[in-house]
Amino acid sequence: MPGVSFAAHELSAIEVPEGVPEIPPRVFAERYQNLEARRQQSGYDALVIFADREHAANLGWLTGFTPRFEEALWVQVGGQTPTLLVGNECLGLARSACKLEARFELYQEFSLPGQDRSLSTDLVGLLRKAGLGRGLRVGLIGWKPMQALDVPHWIVEAIQEVTAQTPQNAADLLMHPASGLRVRLEPEQIRLAEYAAALTSEGIKHWVRGLYAGQPEWEAARHLVSYGLELSCHPMVNFGPEIPSGLKSPRNQRAQPGFYAQAAFGLIGGLTCRAGRLVRADYQDDADEYLELVVNYLQVVHAWYAALGVGVLAGEVFAQAHRAKSDTWDFALNPGHLIHLDEWLASPFAPGSTVALQSGMAIQQDIIPLPRQGRAVVNMEDGLVLADAELREALERLDPAMMQRIRRRRQVMEQLGYQLSEDVLPLSNIQGVFFPFLLQPEYVARFD
């Protein structure tokens, strides 16, 4: 395994693209046709997609519309114009945001409590109007591919009443890590992911550079700027002598020398996280559990990156990372996962996984170490895309400036000692850059 050293290193400035990349209507039309083909192959007469604010990625991928405050239901029946059911506040938004031809129906039970419910018919009647009928086999898509149904039971009951059959969970059509329609991003979607990752990584970079003793969490969070792009998770900032969970939102805890610090910032398509210790490069610690964990953690990350490539089995990437890991800590979750509009789409990275990594997959380097003893907090997360030569050429035609930024990110990683397949396209402006001494952020880790 490579050695790890820490030295002052000036990072190259990489710009954030101006303006939010948009997905053209043509892409949504192609997605709909692909989903229709997959529906027929799977033997479903109809597909129903449920969405709410927290679980909107499947509907957003298909239509470009995601509900705000409310729930929504998409119904597509073979040979008919699809129907989108929304509440009071989303009706106007749905008509303007949806990129597909559809009928829009007001279903006021999706509206917030206390609002008017006198104008819409019941759900059973709306489902019949949308084309569902007795004997139709319905695939129901929520947000978790599993055998059980994961949408509100009153919606399941309404579908059962209309069709006289229990719908089946069909989320695998979109979310299966090997075959789901969402696991391979189109060039236009990759462009949006690169924009999101540039924003999140710049936010975390400025968070690191702005840390100081006495700083409260809420003030440190001012660096996490989205420019209005939708969040994929709430912003997280944590200071403390130990951090039991990095999921907490920023409050009033203040940074102190020797404390640990963590921040994560996620937008649709990208998330960046860093966690380490609030110390300077000359600090002394007799136990030194922190630096011991840092060194081996980074060796695991190095092995993980070196194993990535189009066609590589995800189980082999897991195995390479696991071989590099000492027995003093465990993976808190899967070592890496797929990322999309949602922060976690699926993860093929598991022992023995035979899922082959594909061109177009957006992957999050999300290796969270869980020490078996001690309280050291270490983490580094960045997003990337795998792209074969054909996809790289398509991306070059679409956005040459983006590909130039990607090449500069690869150069930074290679200067730090990472070994990368040509298939690996880093999307984060601090991809693979770890700051071991958070009170001296000019120091970064390098591989010898």
Strand content: 15-25%
> How far apart, in Å, are the first and last alpha carbons?
10 Å
On the 0 to 100 scale, the average pLDDT is: 97
Class by SSE composition: alpha+beta
User: What are the segments in which pLDDT stays under 50 over at least 5 consecutive residues?
Assistant: none
CATH architecture of the largest domain: Alpha-Beta Complex
Overview of the molecule:
- The protein is α+β, with helices and mostly antiparallel strands and 448 residues long.
- The chain has two domains: 4-20 and 186-447, Creatine Amidinohydrolase, CATH 3.90.230; 25-175, Creatinase/prolidase N-terminal domain (Creatine Amidinohydrolase, Chain A, domain 1), CATH 3.40.350.
- Helix content is 31%, strand content 18%.
- The protein has helices at 25-42, 57-63, 91-97, 123-129, 153-163, 172-175, 187-209, 217-220, 289-307, 314-324, 389-398, 400-415, and strands at 4-8, 46-51, 72-77, 83-86, 103-106, 138-141, 168-169, 236-240, 260-267, 270-277, 329-331, 337-338, 362-366, 369-371, 379-386, 424-426, 443-447.
- The strands form four sheets. Strands 8, 9, 10, 12, 13, 15 and 16 form a seven-stranded antiparallel beta sheet that branches. It has a six-stranded mixed beta sheet with strand order 5-4-3-2-6-7, covered by helices on one side. It has a two-stranded antiparallel sheet with strand order 1-17.
- The longest helix has 23 residues, at 187-209.
- It is globular and about 70 Å long.
- The N and C termini lie close together (10 Å).
